[in-house]
C-alpha cells in the first residue's frame, strides 16, 4: 500500500508558488496556465479542454499542487486518470457539492458533484474536516462526511472503515486547517496540520493511493508578496505544504522499500 507515484507537479495559474522557495527545491514539473482565461472559480468548456490537455502531457504524476482553492475543480480532471474503482478522500472545509439547476459550468464549489455524476469509477466520497453548515445536510449513500463543526475527532479506524475500495485518490484543500496554521482566501476550519497528517499517513499506510493534490494558497500579487505581513502568510502556507509533501514522500519511500 502507499503512494503509488511520487513525482511532483506544480500548476501555476498565477505566481503564488514562485515565492515558496523551499517547495521549489523539490524536483518537479511546472505547468504554466497563466495564459488561460475564464478559469477563476468557474471554468468554461474550452478552458477545461485545454487544462486537461496540459495535464495529460505532464511527465511527473503523483502529487499535484494546484494553487488557490479557486482552482480546486482541477481535481475533477485528475480523477479522470483513475483506471480502477476508487474512493475520493477529500480534506476540505467545504463539501464542494453545490450544483444549481441549469448551471453547466464546472466550478470550485461543484466539482465533487460533477465527479459523482460523470466518473463511473468513483464509488465513494469521504469528506473530512468541514465546519460549514451545509455539510450536515448531506444525505447520500455514496458520501460520508466527518464534520469538525463542533471540533469532533475521529479514529483512523472510523475513517478507514468508510473507504470501501483498495484504491484511493486524496485531495487536500488547506482551508480545512485553522488560521493559526495557514491562511487561505476562503473561510477556514479547525483542523491542525498534525491532525491532517495523522489521517493522511494512515490512509497512505493501508490503501493504494494513486494520487494526491493540494490547494488552498492565498492569492497574492507580486507586489503583495514582498510586504512583511504577506511574507508571514507565504511562510505559513509553505510550511504546511512541506509537511504534507514530506509525509506523502515518506510513505512512498516506505512502500517502495517494502515492495
What does this entry look like structurally?
It is a single chain. This protein is α/β, with parallel strands linked by helices and 259 residues long. It has a single domain, classed as Ureohydrolase domain (Arginase, Chain A). Helices cover 32% and strands 21% of the residues. The strands form two sheets. Strands 1, 2, 3, 5, 6, 8, 9, 10 and 11 form a nine-stranded parallel β-sheet that branches. A two-stranded antiparallel ribbon has the order 4-7. The relative contact order is 0.19. The model has no long low-confidence stretch (mean pLDDT 91).
List the helices and strands and how they pair.
Blueprint: E1 2-3, E2 7-12, H1 21-24, E3 29-32, E4 42-43, H2 45-57, E5 62-67, H3 74-79, E6 86-91, E7 106-107, H4 111-118, E8 122-128, E9 143-146, H5 156-161, E10 167-173, H6 193-206, E11 208-215, H7 228-258
Parallel strand pairs: 1-11, 2-3, 2-5, 5-11, 6-8, 6-10, 8-9, 10-11
Antiparallel strand pairs: 4-7
Helix pairs in contact: 6-7
Give the CA-based shape.
Answer: globular
CATH class: Alpha Beta
Major sheet description: 9 strands, parallel
Alpha-beta content class: alpha/beta
CATH domain topology: Arginase, Chain A
Question: What's the average pLDDT?
Answer: 91
Q: Spell the H/E element sequence.
A: EEHEEHEHEEHEEHEHEH
* Whole-number count of domains: 1
As a percent range, the share of helical residues equals 25-40%
**How many helices?**
7
Annotated CATH homologous superfamily: Ureohydrolase domain
Strand content: 15-25%
The whole-angstrom Rg is 17 Å
Number of strands: 11
Q: Which architecture name does CATH use?
A: 3-Layer(aba) Sandwich
The residue ranges in which pLDDT falls below 50 over 5 or more consecutive positions are none
Report the end-to-end length measured between terminal Cα atoms: 9 Å
Amino acid at each position: 500500500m502507499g503512494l503509488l507515484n511520487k513525482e511532483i507537479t506544480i500548476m501555476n495559474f498565477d505566481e503564488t508558488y514562485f515565492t515558496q522557495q523551499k517547495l521549489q527545491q523539490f524536483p518537479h514539473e511546472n505547468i504554466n496556465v497563466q495564459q488561460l482565461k475564464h478559469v477563476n472559480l468557474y471554468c468554461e468548456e474550452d478552458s477545461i479542454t485545454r487544462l486537461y490537455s496540459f495535464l495529460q502531457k505532464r511527465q511527473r504524476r503523483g502529487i499535484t499542487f494546484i494553487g488557490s482553492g479557486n482552482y480546486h475543480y482541477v481535481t475533477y480532471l485528475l480523477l479522470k486518470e483513475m483506471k480502477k474503482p476508487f474512493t475520493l478522500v477529500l480534506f476540505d472545509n467545504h463539501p464542494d457539492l453545490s450544483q444549481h439547476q441549469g448551471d453547466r459550468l464546472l466550478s470550485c464549489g461543484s466539482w465533487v458533484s460533477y465527479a459523482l455524476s460523470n466518473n463511473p469509477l468513483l464509488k465513494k466520497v469521504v469528506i473530512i474536516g468541514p465546519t460549514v453548515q451545509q455539510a450536515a445536510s448531506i444525505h447520500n449513500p455514496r458520501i460520508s462526511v466527518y464534520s469538525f463543526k463542533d471540533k469532533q475527532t475521529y479514529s483512523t479506524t472510523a475513517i478507514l472503515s468508510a473507504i470501501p475500495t483498495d484504491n484511493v485518490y486524496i485531495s487536500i484543500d488547506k482551508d480545512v486547517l485553522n488560521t493559526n496554521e495557514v491562511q487561505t482566501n476562503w473561510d477556514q476550519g479547525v483542523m491542525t496540520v498534525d491532525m491532517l497528517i495523522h489521517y493522511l499517513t494512515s490512509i497512505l499506510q493501508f490503501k493504494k493511493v494513486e494520487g494526491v493534490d493540494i490547494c488552498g494558497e492565498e492569492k497574492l500579487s507580486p507586489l503583495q508578496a514582498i510586504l512583511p505581513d504577506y511574507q508571514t502568510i507565504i511562510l505559513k502556507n509553505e510550511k504546511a505544504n512541506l509537511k504534507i509533501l514530506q509525509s506523502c514522500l515518506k510513505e512512498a519511500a516506505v512502500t517502495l522499500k517494502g515492495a
